[in-house]
Design brief:
alpha+beta, about 35% strand
């Protein structure tokens, strides 16, 4: 039986020449968000960004990372979410609390403002990076991803993102979901997807999914796929489990500090210590200045 949360479920609707993936995030996204004191609109936006990173990054055919990053002039001027194969996700948002508090209706488009969305595939080592950039001009993350596929991948694609808090007897827990379907000419598709009845059916059925269905922990992933595509028939493949990950460690932070000149390290000292907080997981690393007295950077 397919797990309900923290997974990516690949699927195929063979009779319609379409394939897709479904993402469900529960404890993992709640863990990521609860490490910060984000306002609710920021949590919702970052949750969708992490779901989108998992949706797209899980398609990697090699060991590497998929990095989604926004840079804009909006109240949320920076978002970074990434997927590290085979199953790690993380995310971080930078925001202006005063600007958000002054907003009457903090929609995604208003929170993001004007700027761009960059999607980067990092194969690691000496391999080249591949990056696609989409302008953000009053649109949502899902709309930007649609533009990315239309312009960069040239694969007819439809996707939906959702996020929100779920309140139970145990408290409030954040959830996120995403689903995507893509046209596959040659596997049931016929020529131009814009005139393909099969593709029109595939994406129209996807459009019927509601946000609450993507977020409902009582609705299994396979049950949701069946609800969407039971008439044409749908095949689900083994799920990919997701887990929160972070690349920070005390050793890595120490190496970073040692690479700074002595004057810069001296400026980092406050109350007799050098303290570094990871932007992603909020882990705090403290060092005594004496630990860097004979730093290799000064040799």
């Amino acid at each position: 039986m397919t797990q309900t949360d923290d997974m990516v479920l690949p699927f195929q609707v063979k009779t319609l020449g379409a394939r897709g993936r479904l993402v469900r995030l529960g404890p993992v996204i709640h863990d990521i968000l609860s490490r910060h004191d984000y306002p609710a609109p920021v949590s919702a936006l970052l949750a969708e960004a992490v779901a989108l990173a998992a949706l797209l990054g899980s398609a990697l055919k090699f060991e590497g990372r998929f990095i989604l990053q926004t840079k804009t002039d909006g109240p949320v001027d920076l978002i970074v979410a990434d997927f590290a194969s085979p199953h790690g996700v993380r995310g971080y948002a930078r925001y202006d609390l005063a600007r958000i508090a002054a907003m009457a209706r903090p929609t995604q488009a208003a929170l993001l403002g004007q700027g761009h969305l960059a999607m980067t595939v990092d194969q690691g080592g000496d391999m080249d990076r591949y990056q696609g950039i989409v302008p953000l001009e009053g649109i949502s993350l899902a709309q930007a991803a649609d533009i990315y596929f239309a312009q960069s991948e040239q694969i007819p694609t439809r996707l939906k993102l959702a996020s929100g808090p779920l309140t139970t007897r145990d408290g409030t827990h954040w959830r996120a979901g995403a689903v995507m379907v893509q046209h596959l000419p040659g596997e049931g598709g016929h020529g131009d997807a814009s005139r393909d009845d099969d593709w029109a059916t595939a994406h129209m059925l996807l459009d019927t999914v509601e946000d609450h269905e993507l977020l409902d922990p009582q609705l299994g992933a396979e049950a949701l796929l069946y609800r969407l595509y039971h008439e044409p028939g749908v095949t689900a493949y083994p799920a990919i489990a997701l887990a929160r990950h972070c690349t920070c460690s005390r050793a890595a932070v120490e190496r970073m500090i040692r690479n700074f000149p002595a004057d810069d390290r001296a400026a980092m000292v406050h109350d007799g210590a050098i303290t570094v907080t990871c932007e992603f997981c909020s882990s705090v690393y403290g060092f005594k200045p004496s630990e860097f007295a004979a730093s290799p950077a000064e040799d």
